[in-house]
């Protein structure tokens, strides 16, 4: 309740300030855009947590009708065999060979991405099997919701199983249904925002390879988080910079290919891609990666705000 009061007071102050400074801001377009980014209007945390839990309930009960209204037409994500869009996601999430006994969400965090989108991250605990194989008990997951009319709809989902980075990975388990063909082919980035996001993404990967914390800091927003291929959640910029510039990974070269930008608004986009890294992390060879990053435009500059990388199942094995 105290947080709600504080937020309401903060908004009131911003409104009063905007009214007083209206003439000055009218002459400065960049200042106006920065103000809009600073006070986004996102959904309350309880709303997104409720939506995520309803999706797990539908997965558990194999409710095929649920996904049509739940998923945005712009939905993109990663599934058991590759890239997902709305059509392939509905098939994925209603896989008849999954038997889910129980599930639980914890450590949920919700943060706005502009005025029309929001990010939710959380730890998922699941007891069940898919294809007769046990599902990893714990994973870190991320979802993005976008405002569609009067509703919030799912525009992105991916999750990374929690594993010990110093123990060689076992053959992946297909978590949400039977393995199928990767029929969702990534489109080339458009000539506008898509190419800009790809250029930044490649720069971020190069900076990670070089353990260049300063460069990474310049390319990213002030409030960031990340879920890596080991299911490790880095909750803020300080944790991410320490991890990325540390000595855990020794990589000679990196590559980012098959990128596609899904624009949720003119100032918010999701970049999905495939990545490679020639080297090791914690002594383990880095395999092919399915990656996703969320970008937000601050003023005239795009900034990396969140990412989740998952091991590419069935590739390079």
Q: In terms of topology, how is this protein built?
A:
Elements: H1 2-20, H2 22-26, H3 29-38, H4 45-61, H5 66-70, E1 71-78, E2 83-84, H6 86-93, E3 98-112, E4 117-130, E5 133-134, E6 138-148, E7 151-161, H7 193-209, H8 213-219, E8 220-227, E9 233-234, H9 237-244, E10 249-265, E11 268-281, E12 284-285, E13 289-298, E14 301-311
Parallel strand pairs: 1-7, 8-14
Antiparallel strand pairs: 1-2, 3-4, 4-5, 4-6, 6-7, 8-9, 10-11, 11-12, 11-13, 13-14
Helix pairs in contact: 7-8
Annotation keywords:
seven-stranded mixed β-sheet, Nuclear Transport Factor 2, Chain: A, alpha+beta, 317 residues
Q: What do you see in this structure?
A:
It is a single chain. The chain has 317 residues and is α+β, with helices and mostly antiparallel strands. The chain has three domains: 2-38; 45-161, Nuclear Transport Factor 2, Chain: A; 193-311, Nuclear Transport Factor 2, Chain: A. The protein is built from nine helices and 14 strands. It has helices spanning 2-20, 22-26, 29-38, 45-61, 66-70, 86-93, 193-209, 213-219, 237-244, and strands spanning 71-78, 83-84, 98-112, 117-130, 133-134, 138-148, 151-161, 220-227, 233-234, 249-265, 268-281, 284-285, 289-298, 301-311. The strands form two sheets. Strands 1, 2, 3, 4, 5, 6 and 7 form a seven-stranded mixed beta sheet that branches. Helix 7 (193-209) packs antiparallel against helix 8.
């Amino acid at each position: 309740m105290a947080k709600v009061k504080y937020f309401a007071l903060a908004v009131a102050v911003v409104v009063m300030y905007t009214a007083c400074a209206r003439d000055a801001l009218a002459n400065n377009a960049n200042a106006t855009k920065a103000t809009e980014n600073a006070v986004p209007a996102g959904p309350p945390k309880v709303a997104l947590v409720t939506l995520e839990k309803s999706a797990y309930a539908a997965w558990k009960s194999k409710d095929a009708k649920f996904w049509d209204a739940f998923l945005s037409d712009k939905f993109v994500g990663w599934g058991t065999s590759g890239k997902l869009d709305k059509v392939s996601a509905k098939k994925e999430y209603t896989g008849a060979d999954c038997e889910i006994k129980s599930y639980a969400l914890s450590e949920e965090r919700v943060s706005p991405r502009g005025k029309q989108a929001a990010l939710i991250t959380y730890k998922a605990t699941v007891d069940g099997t898919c294809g007769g194989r046990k599902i990893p008990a714990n994973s870190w997951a991320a979802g993005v919701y976008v405002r569609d009319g009067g509703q919030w709809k799912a525009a992105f989902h991916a999750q990374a199983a929690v594993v010990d980075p110093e123990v060689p990975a076992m053959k992946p388990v297909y978590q949400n249904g039977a393995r199928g063909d990767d029929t969702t082919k990534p489109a080339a980035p458009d000539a506008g925002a898509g190419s800009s996001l790809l250029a930044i993404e490649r720069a971020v990967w190069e900076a990670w390879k070089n353990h260049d914390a300063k460069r990474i800091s310049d390319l990213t927003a002030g409030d960031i988080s990340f879920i890596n291929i080991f299911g490790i959640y880095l909750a803020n910029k300080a944790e991410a910079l320490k991890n990325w510039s540390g000595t855990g990974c020794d990589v000679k070269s990196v590559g980012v290919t098959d990128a596609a930008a899904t624009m949720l608004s003119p100032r918010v986009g999701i970049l999905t891609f495939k990545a490679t890294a020639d080297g090791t992390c914690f002594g383990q060879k880095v395999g092919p990666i399915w990656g996703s990053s969320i970008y937000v435009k601050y003023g005239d500059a795009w900034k990396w705000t969140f990412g989740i990388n998952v091991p590419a199942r069935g590739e390079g094995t």
